[in-house]
UniProtKB/TrEMBL annotation:
SUPFAM superfamilies: Thioesterase/thiol ester dehydrase-isomerase. Catalyzes the hydrolysis of acyl-CoAs into free fatty acids and coenzyme A (CoASH), regulating their respective intracellular levels. Displays no strong substrate specificity with respect to the carboxylic acid moiety of Acyl-CoAs. Hydrolyzes medium length (C2 to C20) straight-chain, saturated and unsaturated acyl-CoAS but is inactive towards substrates with longer aliphatic chains. Moreover, it catalyzes the hydrolysis of CoA esters of bile acids, such as choloyl-CoA and chenodeoxycholoyl-CoA and competes with bile acid CoA:amino acid N-acyltransferase (BAAT). Its EC number is 3.1.2.1, 3.1.2.11, 3.1.2.2, 3.1.2.27. Pfam families: 4HBT_3, 4HBT_3C. This is Acyl-coenzyme A thioesterase 8. GO terms for cellular component: peroxisomal matrix. PANTHER family: ACYL-COA THIOESTERASE, ACYL-COENZYME A THIOESTERASE 8. It is found in: Peroxisome matrix. It is an enzyme of class 3 (hydrolase). It catalyses: prostaglandin F2alpha-CoA + H2O = prostaglandin F2alpha + CoA + H(+); eicosanoyl-CoA + H2O = eicosanoate + CoA + H(+); decanedioyl-CoA + H2O = decanedioate + CoA + H(+); choloyl-CoA + H2O = cholate + CoA + H(+). Residues 15-24 have a biased composition (Polar residues). Homodimer.
Length: 340
């Protein structure tokens, strides 16, 4: 299965910039001018993931506050938001010549969408090649997430290999989730409860775009392999050059619809409760999170009311950009025949 071709390098491998809180509106730029290096204040960063979700407010040295944008219907904070914001806070404390190569997080409490999150950074270590940061996300005086992030100075290496990217249709040949839902809603025979559920999905203001490779059938429930493939990108324009920022956006993206992969073989069960326990990510190559990337997700194991999922984010040119892994709680109930 392995493909030993060399990883491609891009011009962005050289001269990447540090992460900043670049925004689109002049008043917001002025309000954060003390936090943004002058060479990073641009007018082309229009993605809400940059202007809002990942734009932290500096309260003190290594102490930041983050607000919320999209809250899932569970009314618990989206784990990808907390991971992405924690990586933003960590990235603000390292030098410009090192870039995130891995993060490891534990979710220890559910997030409260009614209050902001504080991010406290501990500068664990600064070496010649690696810098390590510990970040604690805090609400109501207690940690909701503990994150370790490591940053690495890019170095050449003769050891370069990767697996092959799956062969799938390009994103321009596929429909977005919203377009697929509109197709189902146009069916005059669609049950009323199904219409209500699909309209709720349309109302979600998720700041990323999704194009499933194998679209789900919202009306028929069939057992599937615990694998899924979908193209994903941030809504709006972010721009090139700031690799720290693209890693933070990818961390946000990586948690979306990830744990649900473990439920695909069980169409006759519904999750009564699901929550991420931990999340890990490794960054391999430069990429742009506002360009389409293929997210390959699979669940190699489930048991004990837990599920393990693994994922790879591929650039459209076939280069492996990042790898992810997560374990979560999955407590399910069997559906009765009338609810199938």
């Amino acid at each position: 299965m392995a493909d030993s071709r060399l990883t491609e390098k891009t011009p962005a491998d050289a001269g990447q910039q540090n992460i900043g809180s670049s925004v689109t509106r002049t008043d917001e730029r002025n309000a954060n001018a003390d936090q943004i290096p002058s060479h990073e204040v641009t007018s082309d960063l229009r993605s809400v993931l940059v202007t809002s979700v990942l734009n932290l407010e500096k309260l003190d040295t290594d102490l930041y506050r983050g607000k919320h944008h999209w809250v899932p219907r569970t009314q618990r904070l989206f784990g990808g938001q907390i991971v992405g914001q924690a990586l933003v806070a960590a990235a603000k404390s390292v030098s410009e010549n090192v870039f995130a190569h891995s993060l490891h997080c534990y979710f220890v409490r559910a997030g409260d969408p009614k209050v902001p999150v504080l991010y406290q950074v501990d500068r664990t270590r600064d070496g010649r090649s690696f810098s390590v940061r510990s970040v604690k996300a805090i609400q109501h005086g207690q940690p909701i997430l503990i994150c370790q992030a490591s940053f690495h100075m890019q170095q050449p290496s003769p050891l370069q290999h990767q697996f092959s990217m799956p062969t799938v249709p390009p994103p321009e040949d596929l429909l977005t989730v919203e377009e697929l839902i509109q197709q189902y809603l146009s069916n005059p025979n669609l049950a009323e409860n199904a219409k209500q559920g699909l309209n709720k999905l349309l109302a979600d203001e998720v700041p990323i775009e999704i194009k499933p490779v194998n679209p789900p059938d919202f009306s028929r429930r069939v057992a599937m392999e615990p694998k899924k493939l979908f193209w994903v990108r941030a809504r709006g324009h972010i721009g090139e050059g700031n690799m720290k920022l693209h890693c933070c956006v990818a961390a946000y993206v990586s948690d979306y619809s990830f744990l649900g992969t473990a439920l695909l073989p069980y169409p006759n069960h519904r999750a009564q409760f699901s929550a991420s326990l931990d999340h890990a990510m490794w960054f391999h190559s430069t990429f742009r999170a506002d360009h389409w990337m293929l997210y390959e997700c699979e669940s190699p194991w489930a048991g004990g009311s837990r599920g393990l999922v693994q994922g790879q984010l591929w650039r459209q040119d076939g280069v492996l950009a990042a790898s992810c892994a997560q374990e979560g709680v999955l407590r399910v109930r069997a559906l009765t025949e009338s609810k199938l």
